[in-house]
Amino acid sequence: MEKMKPNEKKYWLDDPRNVTKVYYGVWVICGIAALADLFYDKHVHFFWEEWFNFYGFYGFVGCVFLVLVAKQLRKLVMRPEDYYD
After folding, report:
1. pTM
2. Structural domain for 64, as ranges
């Protein structure tokens, strides 16, 4: 851990142990949300909506797809650094 300056304010996420707690906390919450999928009655329109944690996987794949498309779109619309000079 790097040295702090004398008057520098310390935030709670500056401690790596707290970052680790948040990381594992997010995993636990995701696991609980996925397991909750087993305990309620689904009113579905398509058969694949009944699959275990379908919407979790669907959301993950959608986000990955958006990131990959955005990376390609950046190549198309990016301007040089001195474009407005």
Report:
1. 0.64
2. 13-39+52-77
